[in-house]
Amino acid sequence: MKILFLFILIFHVSYVNADEIYNLIKIPNLEVYKLKNDNNIRYLNTKGNFKIGTNNNITCDKVSINNLNQKFPLIERNLNRYNSNFLKLIRLKYIVLCENLFISEINTGGIPDNKNRTLILDINFNQKYFERMIHHEIFHMIQNTHDEYFDEDKFSSFNKTSFNYAECSTCSDRLNLDLYEKTNGFLTEYSKSIPSEDMAEIFSFLMTDKETIKVKINSDKILNNKVNFIKLNIAKIDENIL
Amino acid sequence: MIKTIKASKSEKILFIFLTTLSIFVFTFFFLLKNKCLFVEKNNLSKLNFKKPNNIAVMNVECGNVIIELYPDISPKAVERFKILIGQKMYDGSAFYKVSENTFVQAGDIEYGNINNLDYSKIGSGKSGLGLLKSELSNDFKFTEGSVGFARATEFDTEDSEFFITLKEIPIYQGEFTPIGKVVYGLDILTKIKTGNKAIYVLRPDYIKTLRMFNTN
Predict the structure, then answer these.
(1) What is the pLDDT of residues A143-156, one digit of tens each?
(2) Residue B122 lies in a domain
(3) Residue A165: CB partners within 8 Å, gap ≥ 6?
(4) CATH value at residue B208
(5) Is some CB atom of chain A closer than 8 A to the CB atom of B155?
């Protein structure tokens, strides 16, 4: 019985398209899209659908090459803003480009995986905020590798004492990514979900729309403190990013 | 009185058919089944090397694979490889991870020996000599026949496992510690049993012996 169980386990776990890229970053059905880049980042795309993670809870589909070719310049332009040394520090080397990315049946724009130095991006995710989403996900990689600089309790203390974040980013209905007219400490509704999303939203706006942030913090003390917190701590890693 | 019965035309045809079939079956089972049949053998006594101290000879089912080691690129990794060869630790080591026409991997000393395969732990075995720091080279290209030290997801986890590429794999450049290149016998490695689409191979092929050339 034990042998039978072991046999089933081995085949269940290992029956994937075992190729050289899977061997490296543990995602099947990928191929190289662009390998040589100034900041050493490597772009891969899905040549077939894949399922990974615990109980295969992360899924993403094969990309249409025409769609990718159309969107790639924008993706590359945004990622070129990070130098190779910074990317090394945040453990990011591989960008996996796919369509219809889901985690536990929830559509998501990106999934960072510092362990495998990989960021999976859904090239079809929310075209209105796509660029911002890229930097948002990169912030998660920054925080994962430098949690000593981005202490969530310290960051949360900038909020009014009456405010409470949700238990997790997906267990609230605070998902809207539109910029608030009146910020009151938060740039978007999604900022109110959990502290790390709040920080990621600030970082993504700082990367894509610095001028708007400048205007917003003039009349929002809480937001001003949060923005300074992010700027100060990002500068500890690389003072040229923001 | 018993009459001699002559075989009819159709019986003759049947006889010829059965004879041909027997020859075909014999050929298939005893000749074509031999995967090493058309593989070129490397006669060690006829080979000369500029740096024989850096030549390793891996004997597998279909013959000898000759590997030139590159201590100038990765001195610590090559030193470790030579130590393990010297201790005959690779003898019997299974090619448990094989991707068809892409790479073969062996060298799990603890759980990957053909006499003591542990499928639940294979790939996580230790040599007992400790982990090595990765010696990455941005100049070394993982062309066909490149030999690299395998590692866990993290860098600086090299120990004893190694892989050999069966095609050029540009994405491995700067990712793995190179230890050498196959100079003869790459076609022998293409005959190593694969796991079809599974990453692990059941009843795998294995290294019969791995020795330094100058000790052969």
Answers:
(1) 999 999 999 999 99
(2) yes
(3) A156, A192, A193, A194, A195, A198
(4) 2.40.100.10
(5) no
